[in-house]
Write a structure and sequence with these properties.
By secondary structure, the protein is of the alpha+beta class. The chain has helices at 27-34, 72-75, 90-94, 120-126, 154-161, 199-202, 255-259, 306-309, and strands at residues 47-49, 55-58, 105-110, 116-119, 130-139, 143-153, 169-174, 194-198, 208-213, 216-217, 227-229, 242-248, 283-286, 295-298. The chain has one domain: Sulfite Oxidase, Chain A, domain 2. It contains 8 helices and 14 strands. The strands form 2 sheets. Strands 1, 2, 5, 6, 9, 10, 11, 13 and 14 form a 9-stranded mixed β-sheet that branches. Strands 4-3-12-7-8 form a 5-stranded mixed β-sheet. The protein starts with 26 loop residues before the first helix and ends in a 13-residue tail after the last helix. The structure holds ligand MTE.
Length: 322
């Protein structure tokens, strides 16, 4: 990923909309009014509107009071989505110029007993609706946020797919639409964007498919309508706007690894002790805290989720887990 110096005209991180209330409305109405709405709410036990207006309930098990969620404005305007431009502020503009994310079909395929093609909203209904979890988010570029995601545990989708015993990995493929999506006509990456997990990582209780942020439908620039969330890994693992989830016997090659295997690996577990070849991973800039440059804080092993996930990697060399 290219590190760039923010331009003067970019949104200052202090210029955020204060958080306010919003009502539960169907996704289409929500999308129409999202730009006009002032902010979002984070109410324990509240019903939150997400994809297709599904009520999402705050899951208190994933709401650490120490974590201060980043403002909605920042989460949705400081983005990496190379299909829509390589500057942080471009996806918000370019992904909302008529690119349609509803209806959206996702295919569940490969080594599973219940392959299917299903519309994203129908999938959320089938899996019992959405819940909200507040997770830390750490980008490989050494910045971080705290994000209230709405969605469902990936393990529920895996149970529905019913993988065969030979399935050891899962891949997540992003849409491919070079005709309408200019970034996909560039060679910045091999398209479509692809990410992968080991099946046991994918089945871990923290692995999540997001359909919303702050109780609102997930905006296009953040990966509508379905995007992967794996909070102990660097953000490039969080494939956006997924069209295919495939069960595999062999480890897939993810897009960033294919592009530059010296700098990006398959595991991408957050590890402050292993520097990126071009910069330190020991600390991170907290977006939205401490003025325009952001407050710096120490990066935690596994992004603070070591207690939950370290057992997945028992016996493996931590330096090989990047
Ligand atoms: N998914 C797709 N399809 N294309 C991308 O360029 N960028 C990744 C990841 N998922 C990316 C993607 C990277 S590098 C990061 S850090 C996160 O999305 C950023 O997510 P955000 O923009 O919602 O913060």
């Amino acid at each position: 990923m290219h590190i760039r110096v923010p331009k003067d005209w970019e949104l200052p991180e202090s210029a955020v909309t204060p958080e306010g209330d919003y009502a539960l409305r169907p996704r289409r109405d929500f999308l129409k009014s999202a730009a006009a709405a002032g902010g979002a709410a984070l109410l324990p036990g509240a019903l939150l509107g997400t994809t297709a207006g599904f009520p999402s309930r705050v899951n208190p098990a994933y709401r650490d009071p120490e974590l201060k969620p980043t403002a909605y404005e920042l989460i949705t305007s400081y983005c990496n989505f190379y299909e829509f431009g390589t500057a942080k502020d471009q996806p918000k503009v370019n992904a909302n110029r008529g690119w349609k994310t509803e209806p959206w079909t996702v295919e569940i395929a490969g080594l599973c007993r219940n392959p299917m093609k299903i519309e994203a909203n129908d999938l959320v209904t089938k899996l019992g609706g959405a819940e909200q979890r507040v997770y830390r988010f750490r980008c490989v570029e050494a910045w971080s946020m705290v994000i209230p995601w709405d969605g469902f545990p990936l393990s529920k989708l895996i149970a529905l797919a019913d993988p065969k015993p030979e399935a050891k990995f899962v891949s997540f493929t992003t849409f491919n639409d070079p005709k309408n999506v200019p970034g996909q006509r560039s060679d910045v990456l091999d398209w479509p964007y692809l990410e992968g997990l080991r099946l046991d990582e994918a089945n871990h209780e923290l692995s999540f498919i997001a359909t919303g942020i702050y109780g609102r439908p997930i905006p296009n620039q953040n990966g509508a309508p379905l995007r992967l969330v794996v909070p102990w890994k660097y953000g490039f693992k969080y494939g956006k706007s997924i069209v295919k989830i495939e069960f595999l016997s062999r480890q897939p090659v993810n897009s960033w690894q294919a592009m530059n295997p010296r700098e990006y690996g398959f595991y991408a577990n957050v590890n402050p002790a292993v520097d990126h070849p071009r910069w330190s991973q020991a600390s991170e800039r907290v977006i939205g805290a401490g003025g325009a440059l952001g407050m710096r804080q120490k990066t935690l092993p596994f992004n603070g989720y070591g207690k939950q996930v370290a057992a997945l990697y028992a016996g493996m060399d931590p330096r090989k887990l990047f």
